[in-house]
Specification:
Elements lengths: L7 H19 L10 E3 L7 E3 L2 H6 L6 H20 L4 H20 L4 H22 L6 H11 L2 H14 L23 E3 L17 E15 L2 H14 L3 E8 L1 H13 L4 E5 L4 H15 L21 E8 L4 E6 L3 H17 L3 H11 L1
Parallel strand pairs: 4-5, 5-6
Antiparallel strand pairs: 1-2, 3-8, 4-7, 7-8
Helix pairs in contact: 1-3, 1-4, 3-4, 6-7, 11-12
């Protein structure tokens, strides 16, 4: 397909028109008296929203030059959402003003490179002053901000309570309720989305969960399928009279059968789960758990095998609760220094990543 070409003032005006059409649609949602926008969908019911980036993503224009301008403005909203998670409407309005004044100065004879340099210098100055004047949002202010965003005082107060309980590094997950009630559920400790490998591990039949108190924790990077591989370690754990919690890529065959038989007979209170995540992320999450609990990950890469290690590689935790779908570890015995170092490493990774998915998973691990 042949390329269409446009030059000089005609090209600039078309780009500006596209930016204006997108920005004018988005900015009606700005401020305390902002309105909602209704978005048509090819399938399903229309969407009513006042979120700038959601609106921007839906806009496509017929004129190819104007559409280029709209896509440039859309990039502003998207990048702002990626970096800050909010303020997309304000960023779009600022971009519209910068383009308008910038084109006016170019038309008056100013050099585009000088305008760009001036904008960059101004941005640095404004950003520095904003940081000087910034103050933490606490208490009722959190509820006010959340209530405006959610357009509900009840949800705003609930979110403020959640932030107060989990802190700035905590993770808040919003799920659709099966009832008409809006409620806050707090999960203490570290949680990951893997449950017990067999219902025979359940200790509380009414709640269908396995609870281990003051448990030893074995973390194995690979699969466990042979009893002979970890029989010596199993016997040592049995002698300690403490429950045993096993995390591995998988526990299968005679190894799983042996654990189930020991659990049913009451010889050993044991629970086994699959390791969370996949690939490199799984390795990182296992190291997170090891740091939290004071354990050592058993891996061929580290020169360790199940048949050659003792209780010194096992971690401990005050309480472990395992359901069909989730595992929660509370009060791991890892040293405060190791945990702090791991947290610093995760924060450094957060600042370097450009991926939304990686950022979300890193935030979950940090929490």
């Amino acid at each position: 397909m042949a390329k269409q070409l446009a030059f000089n003032d005609a090209a600039r005006r078309s780009l500006e028109a596209g930016i204006d059409k997108l920005a004018n649609t988005v900015k009606v949602t700005l401020g305390p008296r902002g309105r909602n926008v209704v978005l048509d969908k090819k399938w399903g019911a229309p969407t009513i929203t006042n979120d700038g980036v959601t609106i921007a993503r839906e806009i496509e224009l017929d004129d190819p030059y104007e559409n280029l301008g709209a896509q440039l403005a859309k990039e502003v909203a998207t990048k702002t959402n990626d970096v800050a998670g909010d303020g997309t409407t304000t960023a779009t309005v600022l971009a519209q003003a910068l383009v308008k004044e910038g084109l006016r100065n170019v038309a008056a004879g100013a050099a585009p490179s000088q305008i760009k340099r001036g904008i960059e210098v101004s941005v640095e100055a404004v950003a520095a002053r904003l940081l000087e004047n910034a103050r933490p949002v606490e208490g009722t202010q959190v509820a006010s901000v959340a209530a405006i965003s959610a357009q509900s005082d009840e949800i705003g107060e609930l979110l403020a309570e959640a932030f107060g309980k989990v802190g700035k590094d905590g993770v808040i997950t919003i799920e659709e309720s099966s009832t008409t009630q809006t409620e806050l559920v707090l999960t203490e400790g570290m949680q990951f989305d893997k449950g017990y490998l067999s219902p025979y591990f359940v200790t509380d039949t009414e709640r269908q969960e396995a609870v281990l108190e003051d448990a030893l924790i074995l973390i194995n990077q690979g699969k466990i399928s042979s009893v002979q591989d970890f029989l010596p370690l199993l016997e040592k754990a049995l002698q300690s009279s403490k429950p045993l919690f096993i995390i591995a890529e998988d526990v299968e065959g005679e190894a799983l059968s042996t654990l189930i038989v020991n659990r049913i007979r009451g010889t050993l209170n044991v629970v086994a789960v699959k390791a969370p995540g996949f690939g490199d992320r799984r390795k990182a999450m296992l190291q997170d758990i090891a740091t939290l609990t004071g354990a050592q990950v058993i891996s061929a890469e580290l020169g360790l095998s199940l048949d050659s290690v003792g209780l010194e590689v096992l971690g401990t935790a005050r309480r472990i609760t395992v359901t069909k779908d989730n595992t929660t570890i509370v009060d791991g015995a890892g040293s405060a220094e190791d945990v702090a170092a791991r947290v610093s490493q995760l924060r450094a990774e957060l600042t370097r990543t450009d991926s939304d998915w990686d950022r979300e998973k890193l935030q979950e691990r940090l929490a």
